[in-house]
Amino acid sequence: MGEAKRILLFGGTFDPVHNGHLIVARTAAQRRGSARVMLIPSAVPPHKTAAGASAAHRLAMLELAIEGHGLFEVCELELQRSGVSYTLETVEQLRRRHPDAEFHWLIGADMLPDLHKWYRAQEVVKLVRFVVAARLPWQDQLGPIFQALGDRFPPEAIERLRAGVTDTPLVDISSTDIRRRIAAGEPIDQLVPPAVACYIAAHGLYGGAGGGP
To answer: Residue 163 has what pLDDT?
Structure first.
């Protein structure tokens, strides 16, 4: 039997998807040897407020953002499932669908301190390997974070998390800022793929002026 295909999973609200998402995911996939990146839009994120755009709009923007990029695909599992989008349930479903794949889950280093708060976090860390996107200033803060997590996870889990730390570019783009810019009538052309900017304008998302519903 050949080596398992490594797939990088990247979940989030993607409200909206932006260039930073794609740059970090592409870099992490290259550095961790992943053959594919699955972008997984959440239906109801457990640790955030409700999305500003509907699931249908967020999905459409993701599809537009990755068009022509063979590395990426969009996974609709969490949108098809009712209730809160838990990482554990998503990974369990994907493992059943792709029993020969090796799954890695991409998170930002800023999410690491709260990893123990995830639904059944101990099981999640055993079930999937985390890729921790660490750029400055987080690289200098990981030691104390891992030390604190040592009270929440066993030593073998901490070692797996440490092994997943991956240097990624510093991309100062956030969905929150993009939504603010749109509402204020400021340009976002350099922050999102062109097709996504056109979609947002056409549908008047995030308080912008548009011609569609």
So the answer is: 95
pLDDT at 211: 46
Instruction: Give the residue numbers spanning the domain of 70.
Output: 5-172
In a domain, 184, yes or no: no
Mapped onto helix, strand or coil, the DSSP state of residue 36 is: strand
Longest Cα separation, the chain:
56
**CATH number for position 53:** 3.40.50.620
pLDDT per residue as tens digits for the range 75-127:
999 999 978 899 999 999 999 999 999 999 999 999 999 999 999 999 999 99
Both tokens assigned to 66: 């990755």
Could you give the residue ranges of the DSSP H alpha helices within the chain? 19-32, 55-66, 77-80, 87-97, 121-127, 142-149, 155-163, 175-183, 194-203
User: Quick check: is 148 in a domain?
Assistant: yes
Q: Is the residue at 183 inside a domain?
A: no
Question: What number of residues does the chain have?
Answer: 213
pTM above 0.70, yes or no: yes
One-letter amino acid for residue 94 of the chain: L
